[in-house]
Structure formats: structure tokens, C-alpha cells
Amino acid sequence: MKKNIIILAAAAALLAISCTNLDVDVKSLYTEYPTTDVALEAKMADVYYCFRGALGRRYGESSSLSSDEQTAISFDGDYYDGGTYAHSALHNYSPDDPSVGWYGELAAGITKANQAILDLGGYDSPASSYARAMRAFYLFLLMDNYGDVPIIDGPVEEGQVIDRKPRAQVAEWLEQELLAVIPDLSEDVSPATYGKPTKWMAETLLAKLYLNWAVYTASDVTAYEATASNAKLNDLVALCDDIIASGLFSLAGGEQAGDGGTPLNPYRAKFYPNNGPQIKDFIYAMPYDALTQQGFQYARPRVWRQGRNDGNDGPGYFGTDIGASCGGNFSLTPEAAARFDAAAAEGDLRAEQVIRGKIYMYDPVTYEKTSTPYLYKGEEIVLTNTITLLADDENLNTGKNVTGWSQGYKSVKYFVIQDDYKNGRNQSNDLPIFRYADVLLMKAEAIVRGATATNGDSAASLVNQVRAYAKAPAKSSVDLAVIENERCLEFFDENWRRNDMIRFGHFENEYGFHKKGFPTANFDKTRRILPIPTGVLNENTNWKQNPGY
In total, how many domains does the chain have? Predict the structure, then answer.
């Protein structure tokens, strides 16, 4: 969210909310805690935003590249980077790969939240509910990605031995923690609460927990099967119904073109550099600004390798010379490309979040796609929907030339502007985490899986709300395959595809270069969770590495 000033949340409003105790003895280190807007905001800012950097780059690398959304490529050594991207694409992760090495940032978030809980008066203080909600969010991400993790609900004493807890136990603790804090969180949806935990953020987080409940509570990470029953489906529907009934969110809601006018593609406009609290689809998002809230760096690997400019000191395809070089080392898998080709054939607006075939120029003022082809050194550039390697090896090398750079479609979901990108390749596009569209599709999936339909909704009616907004034709019937495809299109490049693929039982499928017989491609079910980074193991010598690594 750029160039918008986030209004400070009123501490008085937070402190007026009641709190539910857990059976944990937490005592404040202080006799008084912050009661002013400024003091409370300063105390909580580091809790709210400590994962901003990893979320804006490395987390997205592991989430998207390990799925069938995007794959890594390199160019005669350029952007191989020790194999960190290729390892994710092949499920051949190393504990030392930067792309999977953000465990420490999440653990730090939990530590900061625990300290804030104490500083704000402990569990008896209403203000602590916001730190507890953030702690639950960070613990959810740890559990989802790394499996068995510690439950740390207070400061760690020097020399204290920390043990990991079984994933099922973590899931159950998260459920009880979220149920405890949800009644105490603000229902306000405004610039003051944007990017911060609210009742709706916590309810969506709990719904996400319930959606994959069978995954998280399986006896072992490899034991989950897509046919497993889920005892939490009706609870999930109840949460979705509460969010829907609030009337605070919508699929549309205030999107703007780059010049503030009405966009031709309102779906794309949700992710423009000027997005923010006006986007009513965003239940919870991470705010970024290229100068003051840095860390969002999606563009560099997703922009065509020479897309900075036209090779002759003219503008790149974003309508300007964006001011710094691009990597171009992430391309859509052929499987994802086929989905977007099919969507385009239906007139689905979501197809335009990727560049397909011939690259066209964009208007740098409105951010709209034009009919003018992009030229690099005087030649049109055409991206292929399949990817050809120079050799079948882990380098995933396509060659250091126009042909090599043009292998695979490219994501253009998060539009790039020069004023942002020239500042350390940072962007000001806010990153959505929970969206109203996800609430509708989670409810639809729960109904298909056996939950009781409520409020006159059917799986088809819910899916068709999302499709109607995207100008896609309605579905007469909906099954799990339809819902999975819908999620692929709707949440592309938003870090949910890996999570979805595991639930649907497709994570071990063949896609991209994750193919049977491809050197170092791994199909072991242990790859459903990441390896514990070496540095974390060195700090916790009583831990063992995750199975399979």
C-alpha cells in the first residue's frame, strides 16, 4: 500500500475489549503497560511486521516453486544461485537453501509476540489478544511448512531446553488459542486496522486451519490421504458464514487503475502498486512501501530477463525503464500455462495476471495492457507455454539468449513501477494473505466434502460468485476438481498453491521438471514439509532433522 498513511489504531478501543484466559500462568514484567495510541503502536509494530521481509521474497519462492504454479530456470549459470530455486522446483530441498530458510523469522515473531503479551499485561489484558493472534499466525505458518514445532507461550529462560511438539498437538493448541482470542479482537475494518489482526483475520486463519485439519492431524506427514475425513467441515462453514454475514467484505470494493480511474480489469487492479485498505476483498494483507515498508521483491525473478527496458535505452514492457535489472528466472510450469490458456479462451479476466505468448506494452499511468507489442532490440518477444532445457539436469538451464530467456509464461500479477523498483528492487504492492474470495471457495469446498450447506448457498453458487466477478462463464455443477482449478486461477502467486496441492493429494504429481526420472527430482511424501534449517538445528541440539532429509 503506497503513499497511504496508516492511521494508528485506538488503544482505548483495544483496551475496552474483554479477554478470555487460557490455563497458562503469564505474569507481566511491568506494573504498567502502554495505554496511548503511540505507545501501543510502537509496542506492536514489530510484532505485526517482523515477517515482512521473508514474506516478500523467500516465503513466496518456496511456496510457488514447490507447487505446479512456477518453476525455476537459469541461463548458463545466471540465477542458478547454488540451486536454491531449482531445489524447491524439484522437491530436493537442502537445509541450507535460503528459499526454505525463514524458520528463524517466524520464530522471532513468536518471541516478539510473547514479549508483547507480557509487556501489555499478560492474558488478563485485552490488548494482548492482538499479539496472541499474531503469534497464532506465525505458529500456523511454522507448523504448515515445517511440521512438528515448539509451542512457546511465554519467554524462554536462559538454558531452557525447547522441545518440538507433534503437529497434531500444535493444530489443537492453535484451535483453542484462536477460539479464545477471536471474541476479544476488533471487528473494525478500516485504514486503522489494515494489515493488523482483527476478528475476521483470526476467523479466516482458523478456517484455514480447519480446511487442512486432516492434513495436520494425520499420524505422520506421509500418512495423509486426500480421501481422509475432516471432522471440522461444519465448523469451517460456520466461520465463513460469520465473515460473509458481516457485510464488511466483497469481491469488488474500491479498486483503482494507476491513475485512480476505473480499471478495465478489476481483478488485476486488486494487486496494483496503489492497492490498500480500499480493496474490500482483502481480509488481511501485508502492507509494503518501496521506501518506508520495504521487503516486497516479487518482480525481479518474475519479469522477463531483459524486461527492464527495450535494449536500446527505451522503456521496458511496463512502460518505463524500471530502473534496475531483472532476473527472469521464474516461469510458469506448462501445467499452469495450460490452465491460463483455457481461462483466456473463456474470457476469464484472471488470465491477464500472466503474460502469455507475445509480450505487449503496458501503460505506465493506468497500468493497463495496450495493443502495442514490446520490442527488445527491435524484435518482438514471444513466450512459450512449454519450457525446453539445454540438458536434463538440476541446472534447469534454458540458455543465455532471447530464446532461453523466453521459455515459459511470466507472472505480471504485481505491476512494477519505476519509482518503486529503482529503490533496491522493492515494490509497493501490498501482498494479500486472506481474501474474501477464499472464504467463498473454502465454504464451497467444505460443502462438496460433506459439510451441511447453509443460508441457501450451494457449492456452485459460491464458486459462481467468484467466476462472475472474473467474467468467467458460470458452472452448472461443481466438484473438487472444479474447485481446485478455481483456486489455481484465483490465488495464483499468493502462496496457497502448495498448501492446496497437499490437501487435494496432488503434491507428489508430475509437473514442471518434477518428473519421474528427472535427475534429483524427489517424490517422497516427506517433502510435504521442509527441512529444518541447519542454523536452527545448531541452536537446538536436542532436535532431529525432519524425516527424509
Answer: 1
- Radius of gyration in angstroms for the set of CA atoms belonging to the chain, rounded to a whole number: 23
Beta carbons of 101 and 94 less than 8 angstroms apart = no
CB 72 within 8 A of CB 89: yes
Chain centre to alpha carbon of residue 397: 27
- Beta bridge pairs of residue 511: 514
Beta 431-435 vs 360-362: how paired, if at all?
A: unpaired
DSSP 48-66: HHTTHHHHTTHHHHHHHHT
Question: DSSP secondary structure string, 176-199?
Answer: HHHHHHGGGS----STTTTTS--H
Residue with cell 467484505: 249
How many CB atoms within 10 Å of residue 442?
A: 24
Residue range(s) defining the domain that contains residue 154: 11-67+96-248+525-539
Which tens digit of pLDDT belongs to each residue from 314-324?
A: 999 999 999 99
Residue 329 is assigned to a structural domain of this protein: no
Q: Which three cell numbers stand for residue 513?
A: 521438471
Rounded Cα–Cα distance for residues 484 and 335 (Å): 13
Distance CA 57, CA 180 (A): 32
Domain for residue 79, yes or no? Answer: no
* Alpha carbon distance 84, 93 (integer Å): 8
Q: Indicate the DSSP class of residue 326.
A: -
Q: Residue 230 domain-assigned?
A: yes
Closest to 521 (Cα-Cα) out of 511, 531, 534, 506: 511
Whether 542 shows a pLDDT value over 90: the answer reads yes
Rounded average pLDDT over 85-103? 98
CA distance 40 to 11: 6
- CATH number of domain containing 105: 1.25.40.390
For 382-422, write each residue's pLDDT tens digit: 999 999 999 999 999 999 999 999 999 999 999 999 999 99
Q: Is the pLDDT of residue 2 over 50?
A: no
pLDDT computed for residue 3 by the predictor:
42
Structural domain contains residue 163: yes
Distance CA 338, CA 488 (A): 11
